[in-house]
Structures are given as structure tokens and as C-alpha cells.
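Researcher: Please generate the 3D structure of the following complex. Treat every line as part of one assembly.
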Amino acid sequence: MNVKFLTLAVAASLAAPLPSFAERASDGEVRIIYWQAPSILNPFLSGGTKDLESASLVLEPLGRYDQDGNMVAWLAQSIPTVENGGVSEDLTTITWKLKDGILWSDGTSVSSHDVKFTADYCMHPEGGCSQLSNFDDVASVDVIDDLTVKVTFGVPKPFPYGPFMGSTSPIIQRAQFENCMGAKAPECTEANFNPIGTGPFRVTEFRPNDVISMEANPNYRDPSKPAFASLVFKGGGDATAAGRSVLETGEFDYAWNLQLAPDVLANMEAAGKGTVVSAFGTLVERIMVNLTNPDPALGDERSTAAHPHPFLTDINVRKALSMAIDRELLVEIGYGVAGRPTCNILPAPPIYASNANDACLIHDIEGANNSLDEAGWMPGPDGIRQRDGVRISILYQTSTNAVRQDFQALIKQWWSEIGVETELRNIDASVFFGGDPGSPDTYQKFYADLEMYANNFDGTDPEVYMGNWKCDESPSPDTQWQGANMPRYCDPEYEALLDEMSKTGDLNERARLAKAMNDMLMQNFIMIPLVDRGRVSAHSNSLGGVVLNTWDSELWNAADWHRID
Amino acid sequence: MTDLAASGAERPPRSQWGDVWDQFKTHRGALAGTIFFAFVLLAVVLGPVIWPIDAQYIDIRARNSGPSLEHPLGTDQLGRDTLARVFAGGRASIAVGMTAMLLSLVLGTLIGVVAGFFRRIDGPLMRLTDLFLALPLLPLLLVIILLFRDALRTAFGPETGIFILVVFVIGITSWMQTARIVRGDVLALREREFVLAAKSVGTPPRRLISRHILPNVLSPIMVSATLGIANAIITESALSFLGLGFPSDFPTWGRLLFDATDYLQQYPERVLWPGLAISLTVLSVNYMGDGLRDALDPRIRGR
Amino acid sequence: MFHYTIRRLLLAIPTLLFISLILFLLLDLAPGDPTAQLPLTIPPEVKEKIRLSLGLGEPIYIRYLLWLQQFFVNEPLHLLAEITNIDLSGGAQRVISWQTRSPVVDIVVQRMPQTLWVVGLSYVIGVLIALPIGIISAYRQYSWFDQIGTFVSMVGFSVPTFFTGVLLIVIFSVQLGWFPSIYDTTHRVEDWPSFLFQVKQLAMPVAVLALFNAAQISRFMRASMLDNLNQDYVRTARAKGLAERVVLLVHVLRNSMIPVVTVIALGVPTVFGGAIITEQVFKVNGLGQLLITAIQANDIPMVQTLTFMFAVLIVLFNLAADILYGILDPRIRYD
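Model: Done. Output below.
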């Protein structure tokens, strides 16, 4: 394993300059606004970002990712690796050692039994744990001693950092959740709303879907932190209002995920009360190409492998669609500093980022026209290109969101310049991403020719993500329309690469394979990547210590936050 | 009815509608409202002919520009011409507003009159009204879309199909208030002397309703109509925002107003035009309603 | 009238049961899924397990009966236990929200104060301004007062609250800094300064909603007054030498109230339904926000319970309106 990547050294930024008056609870109140309100503080019962991030103020994992995607020991003494003996040579076990003397906020000490309990809690078959995929292939979790716990996997795990790493897998207290296993999980309202944790804050009042009040944890491991005595976590409203309350009226200190038009955001920042911060992760806004025929006349066989798409199966058409898009302009209109054009579906971390496809950055209407001409798609009497009676007329769907609707309108215009007719459709996000097999409008059913949305992956390892485009991941009636392979892409060569990756431990080799897979998808135009989307948040000018992190919870270092005058 | 006879005696006999028109003309507000409404109708119908820029055409270099000769009302964040969008948006908004309002009015009046007049079906009809009032709008819309969108789209094409759907959805979710109000009035009217008198001379129910009941519940219906048209225009924009209405690049007044709200501070003029268009249209309908009600009231006529 | 009331109340039970069934079927049929808001990185197998843990694996009639039992048996028993400390429920499951995994009724109770403060108060204020405006506008038809009233109420009704709310925030919070743009639901009124703060944070949302409500009610009041002012009985009353004030406020007003009572009776339940857009604009997080987030998250127990409570209020208030008709106009009889 690459020591550089899995560096044990705590990133220099963690030792950020502390205020000279560093003393716990000396800086009054910090006010955070999320325009989606947290519903529950138990991250295992809700996977929503709002819930995970609010809970991350209270509950902590053994290790976190820092702002560069490096692993950092948190409750553990160090990140286990093969080099330091924490991960076995055959890649089937990982042994974590807890730091000494860590206390829960109720004053009792944290032990490896809590860690094992957390795994048991999530892996309970009736619990409906949303973070279960972190525990994939875990055969057993064993307590070695009070501070040591060993996770054994059923198969070799080249990347064994699923359990207990990052905001999706924090440690909960056994004493509190002991009677909340499995089917009883929802009955423990008190525990789910007021979890006892090791984080810098503890809950004083939780109002579901509204506001959380917290105070400094008196038993936090660093006696000088957190700087704030109390914390208000307000939820609700919309991104515009959240941005306004930090940047213009100064009512709040920190606003999360301000996906707003760049000029609106710039105008708010000009009021001079706060600062917009952004950072990039793996989130890519992309257009998925349907390789199967969504014609309603096909009934139950719509959008299934039984019927290839009449024109999108022609690579020249897909290529022309991609070439006609001006990604620079999309970024400028939609995301500003929070976006950059991308030609990859796997844009980060840096070792996985390919530059073999960068030709797509050039907006080339002429080239797109040539590509279609050469393939025999000629403009018909109505100006729409056709071949053998098949017109290039596209139904292009996405979820409802102001930026996406602007993108749709722009792209529709570019495509009209290459003789492609486009009908736009936007669908309410709760239906589009709902996965209800009864609805025709879900992104899995894909009853359209193209669809646009954004996706990313947890943590820094892309293996699971690249596995999305396996043939048997294609949604179909046989799978109740579940699966992540929206294009219904099937290529044995791709799966061979994937197979190889699952057996490879060496990081550089894994990177080569991941890049090869990315290039394969991109050069076949199975998906059309548009924008590498960063996270944009804002903090008031008087709030210090904010380090925006897209690999873990945004509030990961709230213990270091402090007031600057 | 005596007034009517008296005014008729002085002049050559005229149709009742002629009298209504004479009275309507003397109502200044109504006349102004009618003229303005006719102007709006003309503008949205002929506007795209006079001002031939395509409302969906994006001129990205001209985005966020203020009023100029090229774009008299400026452009939006993608460089689409605001004037063209206000014209095109008016077409959809007025068409939806009028038809949905008429549908909900007809449904509401019918159910209200029938429930108020015929005791036997009052109970069931009012329980039905309660049911409709209780249905949550959003899930109901999702279900309607689920069941009918694809069928309508194949039968009428995307735009007409969506139009029918939107009108239907707004119509059947907004008739209940009219129905309750009309029924309340009819319950009281039914016991009035003139209705009892007409009944006692054997007037059949249908004529009783059209001659005696309907003219007397006209004013709440007119108010419902005015409020209904505003409601329909706004609801339509909410629908398209939820992805349940017209495609997102299809302008409507409500949608223009919604999109412009984010830019309220930078480009306040952008909210002005759709906001003004909606308010003035509703206002003109209101005055037309006022005038029509006065004109149809035989007691006022001729005063 | 008494028999009528009793009969209607009894009839309300099957009506409401039927409504609850329709609501349940509607919510079940509506597309959407409780796992829709989870990140796409959570794999489908895990989502399926979450669905099963929520009880979605059961057939629909079982789920409906379960809800009936939880709402009509377990909740009252729990309430009884809370009040009297006599626990007959035996820890039976209450109606549990899928989003928060906590009892729905507790959250509803938690949301009551801000809903009543904002939506309730604005309704009361709306009615209180609408009635005099409607009466004066009708009495002095086409006067300046009437013209301005018409203009303001038409603009107030036709400009949506998503716009007026933001406009007020930009003017009064951003530019002038007078009022907070975000409502603090944890604020408690204890003394004069905290009361002043409460007034400040109420000012904008209440103004927006009150304008909207007043616009609608004043139009109906005006129209109905106008109808009655031209009736023969008014001329008779005046001819008899009754004071104008008596004619207007006793005879005309009483006879004009039927449509207004109808509108108000339809409006009161909507107070408890919250005001979705206004609550969102001002971050009030009342019952409206609760309902819309529950709908978006496909939290069926929550939506079902909220809409059912709403249905109960609708049925009751429409009954109250029907009874009031009889009091306002004794000629209306239902027996």
C-alpha cells in the first residue's frame, strides 16, 4: 500500500493556528443553517446528508478523511495499514486500536465493546441500517482487549476501510443503544434524537425537521475545545434564504450547500458579512445515455436490453451530442467557482483522474455536424437529422432544480444547431430518485432517451462506483428496476478490468485500472460528463477555523471553529 | 321585474342582453377592465407576430442585459428576451387561467346549486366536497400525472396533452369553495318568498333554478371567478416547478415570476413585468365581473 | 337543529373512516419511496432492507388496519397514560414517522405553537381587517375607499406569497435590518423584551399571510353586502325610520354573512394545515413545513396522520358552518 496516500501523519492543517485565548466554551454561540432540516441524529437509521452531518457534531468514527481525502486517525491511535501491521498480509483483517482515555459525553469511557456493538447494531438483519454497505463482506468483529478490535472479512479486501471510517460509520454507545437492536430501533426515539457521543458538542434539545440545540461536550478529549459554549443547528427553507442569512443579514455563521446561480451568490457575498468557500470531491453532473429503446409502444419491454435504442446505439450520434456541448459555459452559468468542466466520470482523487478524454472540453458544433454527416444522418425537411426514417428526436429528463433547467435549455439549443430535436422534461426529485417501481418517472426506469443528474461515491476508493456499470447492474423488470447501470451498458472487456481491480491491492495498479475503465466509458460516450461539481458553503467573517471537506462531513472539524473579532 | 318593464316601455322592445350591455357600458370600471383585458388578449395573441423573437431562443452573450432597443424589457439569466417571454407566457397563463377557472366554476356552481336545492342529495354531495377538501394536493397531482400523462401525451401531443392535464388538475382541485358558498346561498334562497311563490305556481325545478336561483347567487360566483383566475395562474407555476406542468423552458407568467424572485436584488425589473401582468389581468377580470353583476341585477339596471 | 347536529356528528364517523381509506389508497398509489432522499451511494439492496424494516413488505390492507389501530386505539391510550398515569396501552406502538422514527403526534404537538402564532394569528388579523373593509367598500361602492380596497386586495391575492415574502425580507431584513429573516421556533415569550422579539419575528410572515387572507374574505363580504343592500327589506327598514347603523350592521350584515361564514369555515382548517410557502420563506417550520417535508420524503404515516387530522377539522368546521346558517337565517332548516 502506498504510504504517501494513506499517510499517518496528521495533516498540517489540522494543527491550524489556534486562537491565543483557547479555552473551552469561551466564544459564545455558533449558529449553523442547513436548508434541509435533520430528521434524526442516528446516522444508521437515515442516510441523508443533513442527518449525517448534524450527527457528526456528536458522533465520531475511528478515522476520518481530511480535506484532501487523506485518512486521519480520529478515535483510533493510527490508521491501520499493511505496513504498520494493522491490516493482515492477505487483506482479510484490519485491527483498530482506540486512543486511551476517550470519554462519552456522559462521562463513561469508550471501549472496543462499543465499536463491536456498532457493527452488530448496523448488521442486524431487521434493523434496516442505511450504512450497511460499509459493512459489506464483514465476517466478524472481535474484541481483542478494551481498546483493540479486529474486523475479519470473508474475502480479501484491498480497501478495508468501510467499517468505522468517515461520517457514514461513526461509533455509537452500547449502553444507550443496547435495547434498540433490529426491529426495536425505531422505538428508541430518545436515543435516536439525543445520541451520546464523543464529539465536541452534545444535544440539549432536538426538534425533528426543525432545529437542534447543542452545548459544548464537557468530556471532550481536548480540554481547550470546542471554543463555542453552544451551537444552534437550524434546518429548513431554501438555499437562497440560507445564503442570505449568513452573507447578507449575518443572522447565522455557517450555511451549507449553497447551490445558487454564481451571480446571485457573488451579489450576496458583496454585502461583506461572510465568505463563500468551495471544495471539490467526486460529484459529477452527467448525462446518461439510454442504449435501450424507451418507446412507450414496447410496453413492459420499454428501456430493457431486449430492444436496442434506434439511434443512440450509434456512437457517432452520442459523440456528436457530447461535442456540441460547451462545458465552460455551463460552469459559468450554473456553478461559477463551485464547478469545473470535466470529461471524466471519475474526476478525483488525483491519482484516478484521467486526462485522456480532455478533447471534450472543446465546444465543436462543426465537428459534431461532420460526425453526423459522415454517419449518414442527414437533415430532413424539418431540419431534424434522420436516417432510414429514424429521426433524432430526444426526450431529455432530469430532476427539478433551477440550475438543471437552465442546463437543459442551453443544451437543447446547442443540439438544435446540429439538427437534433429535444423535448425537455423535469420531474420532482422525490419521484425521480424515488425508485418506486410503480412510477414511470424514476431515473432507474429511464423512460427517456437521456437523463441528467449528479452522482459521486463515498470515501476515496472508486471500486464500488466503477462497478455501477456492470451488465447485471442494469435496471429491468426482473430486478424490480433496481440497479445503477442506467445506460444498460454491457461489455465483457469492462467487467474483466473490474474483476482485476477487485483482486489488486497495489494502489498504483488500482489507479491504472480505474482510469482504463473511465476512459472506456468516456471514449464510447456511454455517459456524457458535464461538470465536476464542488461543494459551496459560506461562513461569516467572524467564524474562524472552517476547513471545507468534501470527503467527510463538512462539520468534521467543528471542534476547531472559533470566533475571530 | 317592474323596473325592467318600465325601462322597456319607453324604448322600442329590445332583447334582455341588449339591456345588459347598455348597463354594462355605463360602468366605468367594467369598461376599462374590458378594454384592458381585450388589450392583454390581443397582446398575447398578436404579440409573437409583432415581436418575432423566439421566447425560447438563447442569446448567451446578451444575458442579464437591461432594457435596450434590441430587448425592450431586457433579457434573463440565459439571454432570452423578456418581452417575448411575457407574450408567450401570457398565452399559456391566460389560457390555463380562464379554462381552469371556468371548469372549477361550472363544477362548483353545479354541485352547489344541486346540493342546495335538492335536499336528498345535499348530504352525499357535501360529503364528497369534504373528501375533496381533505385530499392532499401534491400526492393527488402525482397520482393524476401517473395515470393520465402518457395517455394524454400520445392522444394530443406533448403540449396540448399537458394543457388538458393542467386545466383538469386545477379545475378539479379548486371547485369546492365555490360549491360550499353557492350551496349556502341557495339554502337561504330556497326559503325566500319569491322562490316559494314560483314553486307554488308549479314552476319546474330547472326553470326555478335558471330564473330565480342562479341570478341571485351570481355575485359570489363572480368573486370566485376573479379569485379563481389568479389562483389558477399561480397554481400552474407551482405545477411546472414541481415538474408536473409544462416543460421547464416553456414560459408562463407564474414561472417567470418564480424564476425572477431569486434575482430580486440584482434585477428588480425582472419580477415587475410578470407580476404586473398577473395583477392587472386579475384586476381587469375583477372589474368586468363587477360590471357584469351590476348589469345583470334588474334592480340596479336603469338607475 | 339539535337532532340534526347529532345526526351529522354520527354520520361524520363513517365519512371520516371512508376519507381515511381514500387518503391511504391515494398515498399508496402516489409514486415515490421513503428511501428517495438517501444519497445515490446507498446500494439498492440496502434500500430494500430499509423498506422492509419500515413495514412496506406487508400488503396494503394490513398496513391500513395497522394505522387505524395505532391512530384510534394506541394513541388515545397513550394520551390517557400521559394524563392519568394509568397505562393500558402496554407499550403498544404509536404512529411512528418514517423520517424521524418518532411518534407523529408528538411532533405535531411540538409544531403547534409556531403554527398558531404565525398562521393562526394572521388568519385572525385577516378576518378582522377584511370584515370592516368589505362592509365599508360595499356601503360606499365605487368610492375612493372602495377603489383602493379593491386594488390592494386584488394585488394581494394575485401576487403569490413566494414573491411578497422574499420582497419583505429583502427590504426589512437585508436593507433595513429591522426584522429577522429566520424564525426562531425555540424562542419563548417570558418578559417584555422577549415579547418584543416575538412581535418582530412575527411581523413579516403574519403581514404576508394576513394580506392574502384579508383580500379573499373582503371580496366575499363586499359582494354579499352589495346583494343585500338593494333588497326590498332594506328599503322597508329605512322607511320605518330605523337608524342607518342598525339597518346596516344588524339587518344587512346578518343576511350577508352566509357566504362569509362559509369561507371562514373553510379557512380555519387550513390554519392547521399550515402555510407551506410562507413557512418555507420565513423558515417557520410549522405544520405546513412538516407536511411538505413528509410528502417529499414519502413518510406515509406522517402524511396520513396529518391529512386525516386535517380532514377531521374540515368535516367539523363545515358542520359548524351549516349550523351557523340556521342561526343566521332561521328559515334554513334541515329537518
